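dumping this here before i forget
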Amino acid sequence: MTSPESHGPVSIGIDVGGTKVLGVALAAEGRVVSEHRVPTPAGAQELINSIIDVVGVLDSMTGLTDLPVGVGAPGMVTRSGDVLFAPNLAGAHQLALSHLLADRLSGQRRLVVDNDATCAGWGEAVHGAAQGRGDAVVVTLGTGIGGGIITGGRLLRGANGFAGEIGHMVVDPSGPICPCGRAGCWERYASGSGLGRLARDAAHAGRSARLVELAGGDPESVRGEHVTQAAGEGDPGALEVMDRFSWWLASGLANLANAFDPAVMVIGGGLVEAGEILMGPTRRDFLALVEAGSTRPGIEILPAALGERAGAIGAAALAR
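structure:
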């Protein structure tokens, strides 16, 4: 390990996900100095313990103390750092996360708690694909959909801190029930879990024997990763599913572009590993769906640059 002085100002960022708590120590220029992760535990107190443990490990790895800490958490996070509602993270409802962490963190640390996708958006804005763009929308495709909105070079947070909950735009009132309790949210169609649902519909309808084969013979076991694999192999049924999925993704992006007029839209999450199988149809459909698509100034649609670290890097940058 290099000496602490060689890193310049360093901050810690923690990204709380459905399966892992990922922490990074970030140098001022955006370089990840150290990284540590643990599985996401069940229960609020266990989650607090895991975050504190990750911070402690990063302190030890850097040899530094009292580093600023940023934490990105899923769901509706208030300006004071409380998790009001988190449909995709069990045990995090009505959780005074900032207060509970501040009570446990040693020293005189700066602490910032924000929404995980907001953090990812800021990470891509300052160190990733949207760097140098003052107006951007960052969309994270995971189990659900999160968003970070940058306008005039600043994060848009809203009156209560809830801006960016774009996955819960209702796009089909008669659609499937969302974990938030409503029907037809955008994330039911254009998230990783949405891709899996579209694929299972195709498998049950007999439109892709390859998807069923990859799922071990059970149509109900088909998941999004089976779609990307089969589509990469050129399977017509999987490509049809991906094409439908891309339309739903482009439809939501068009609505966001109409509302915020960004220069760039950045797509993050594991699904971007599908490359042009996803991005090509999405760009095509977006141009057809956005207002004045053929005559308005172009809006770039780019894959995220920071990968799974985006939320942690953004949280560290916010803390800094």
